[in-house]
Design a protein that fits this description.
Elements lengths: L35 E5 L26 E7 L3 E5 L7 E3 L3 E2 L2 E2 L5 H5 L9 E2 L8 E5 L5 E5 L2 E2 L21 E3 L16 E6 L3 E6 L6 E3 L15 H5 L21 E3 L6 E5 L2 E2 L21 E3 L13
Parallel strand pairs: 1-8, 2-7
Antiparallel strand pairs: 2-3, 4-11, 5-6, 8-9, 9-10, 12-13, 14-18, 15-16, 16-17
Length: about 300
């Protein structure tokens, strides 16, 4: 069994908290089951539904999946992806009992059906929930929990979920075949357990937070990242202490950058940033860059930085 499609590439409002501490170091206290049906799918009337196609958006209507996997999105939870990390979707106008696809023609150009030929259950995937349905063109389309599975043409990087909620009818697939739903908003700053780095700080979108070893924290915060550096390493804007979880409160303060007069957040007085090279929640591509950028512990310490 061979895959015929592989064109997708891998690839607060916040109040100032200077009232918490007047200076660095001061101890002021802070206030349904799938089956191999083989039934013919009859093209349905999409009724002018917005399929989300952009100008010139086009792709092959057939696609493979390889070994399916489970990825965790910070807002949507656990999602099904193909072997490249691309998200799989379901369409509300399809049916699961019995499985039937109603996305053909232009719709299938924007939402390429995932072929069942080479699909396999990877870790976290219940093989009994995988099945197939025969499309109008005779192709066998993968189903998850009975629902026909699709890619989205605008998802080009592993972890992209640009198809979520499109037209109010397209949703990422959960491992159970259900619609992924957005969870409650994450705190402005919180922590997560990284398998390699341990407990590190992340922002509200799940992006890793970093420190720059050329910055100064004592006796007051000073950022050495200016100009083009800020484009690559965006400064974290102020986050109210009440909008954090697991972050050390001592010396949690903001300061005014002299270059653009913007307020920047610190942890233990050290300025913090995100990294433009992190494309998805959970990425840590900025760790150790240039020997000067490191992820941040909840107490503000840089992860893995060499001792001075």
């Amino acid at each position: 069994m061979k895959t015929s499609w592989r064109t997708a590439s891998l690839v607060v409002s916040a109040a100032a908290v200077l009232t918490l501490t007047t200076a660095c170091g001061q101890d002021t206290p802070p206030p349904a089951s799938s089956q191999n049906v083989g039934a013919s799918a009859v093209p349905g009337d999409l009724g002018g539904i917005d399929t989300g196609a952009g100008a010139g958006a086009s792709t092959s209507p057939d696609g493979g999946a390889g070994e399916l996997a489970v990825a965790t999105n910070v807002k949507l939870g656990k999602l099904v992806t193909d072997e490249l990390g691309l998200t799989l979707y379901r369409f509300d106008q399809d049916t699961a009992e019995p499985p039937k696809s109603n996305c053909d023609g232009d719709c299938a150009e924007t939402w390429p059906p995932v072929l069942a030929d080479d699909a396999a259950a990877g870790e976290g995937i219940d093989e009994s929930l995988l099945g197939e349905v025969t499309r109008a063109d005779g192709a066998k389309q993968l189903t998850v929990g009975g629902w026909p599975a699709y890619h989205y043409v605008k998802d080009v990087n592993a972890g992209d979920v640009k198809g979520q909620g499109v037209g109010g009818k397209w949703f990422a697939l959960t491992p159970e075949g259900k619609k992924a739903q957005e969870t409650a908003d994450q705190p402005g700053l919180s922590t997560r357990k990284d398998p390699e780095l341990g407990e590190i700080v992340v922002d509200k979108d799940g992006r890793t937070v970093y420190r720059f070893m050329k910055d100064e924290a004592w006796p007051k915060p000073v950022s050495a990242c200016t100009g083009a550096c800020l484009e690559k390493w965006p400064a974290v804007a102020p986050v109210d202490i009440n909008d954090t979880k697991g972050i050390q409160k001592k010396n949690y303060m903001t300061f005014t950058r002299p270059d653009n007069k913007a307020e920047q957040q610190t942890i233990s007085c050290s300025p913090i940033y995100t990294f433009a090279g992190d494309k998805a929640a959970g990425d840590t591509n900025g760790q150790g860059v240039g020997g000067t950028w490191y992820a941040v512990r909840p107490n503000g310490e840089p992860v893995g930085a060499p001792e001075k």
